[in-house]
């Protein structure tokens, strides 16, 4: 249920003001257009008891929300029964151990675990070829729908790719899947769920742009993180021609992360790298991926579910589905109405609940800018 009492009060005040203005208007004067521009900030929330179980049945009165330390009035609230829209991203690159059927079964299990009213889109990778090269791209296999047959067909149509356009897939979620504003029942209830190791190799876009787009839209980000490092490094060492290669983008990303080390000799291609440096680059790339996933999950109110093996993906997907089914969403109009492009910190507290109850919510948002 989404109460609308504040909107009714605002409408009455506006009508009264317009009536007074009309009475005072002199003959021949033109009507002025009054514009009130406000931004409702949506905050998805997960509440768990000390036992780790989700807490259901809460009301808006159980929550207090602060922006930059100042209390805000809750103008909108949705319970855990409201549906979600989910963008499911499947990393089908070689680094996910080339077990496509296992990925497909886990993804199908996730879709089946969602509620009938939830809508899902499917995004995956594939390899495209020209006469001279092959390259990986991200594609939307199915846009948002609650048609389970259509989603099953999309999952069955996933292919393996020879690269990882992971950042591009995040941008596609923001720019294509969630391009249009959500309908009322889905506002503040959109989620990214990605099965991936997070190590990008071939994107045109970058993580900073993808993160900004997803945060601007208030998308909650969940990651089922597959640990592929040991598998990747098995074929990383030794003869340059037969070893797994880093992409040029990965090598550049590594050197950017080491920018503080002046005088570091930079290799321009993989075959210039010795075994020690190959392992150092691999370690750093996985560290970057972990940092990025944890950062985006934390700031959005989501979570990272680490996997040692793809065989455990169903368990992780079940946990994501359960959390989506127990999320609350509250909305407020900021008392700070400046459009200055600054980042605003959000803090949510709970009241009237036993000690040890935990709340996880969106960390903040960037205000619009004139």
Major sheet: arrangement of strands: 7-6-5-8-9-10
Number of helical stretches of at least 4 residues:
9
Give Rg in angstroms: 24 Å
- CATH architectural type of the largest domain: 3-Layer(aba) Sandwich
Quickly give the structural class. Answer: alpha/beta
* Intertermini distance: 34 Å
SSE pattern: HEEEEEHEEHHEHEHHHEHEEEE
- CATH C-level of the largest domain: Alpha Beta
Concise structural overview:
The chain is α/β, with parallel strands linked by helices.
Q: How would you characterize the overall build of this protein?
A:
By secondary structure, the chain is an alpha/beta fold. 32% of the residues lie in helices and 24% in strands. It has 2 domains: 116 residues, no CATH class; 240 residues, 3-Layer(aba) Sandwich (Rossmann fold). It has a 6-stranded mixed beta sheet with strand order 7-6-5-8-9-10, with helices on both faces. The protein has a 4-stranded antiparallel beta sheet with strand order 4-11-1-13. Helix 2 runs antiparallel to helix 3, helix 2 runs parallel beside helix 9 and helix 4 packs parallel to helix 5. The longest helix is centred in the C-terminal third of the chain and has 26 residues.
Provide tags for this entry.
370 residues; alpha/beta; Rossmann fold; six-stranded mixed β-sheet; four-stranded antiparallel β-sheet; 14 strands; 32% helix
Summarize the helices and strands and which ones pair or pack:
Elements: H1 5-24, E1 41-48, E2 63-67, E3 70-72, E4 74-78, E5 85-90, H2 100-113, E6 119-129, E7 134-145, H3 148-156, H4 166-177, E8 190-196, H5 207-216, E9 220-226, H6 229-234, H7 248-257, H8 275-300, E10 303-307, H9 313-324, E11 328-332, E12 343-350, E13 358-361, E14 364-366
Parallel strand pairs: 5-6, 5-8, 8-9, 9-10
Antiparallel strand pairs: 1-11, 1-13, 2-3, 2-12, 4-11, 6-7, 12-14
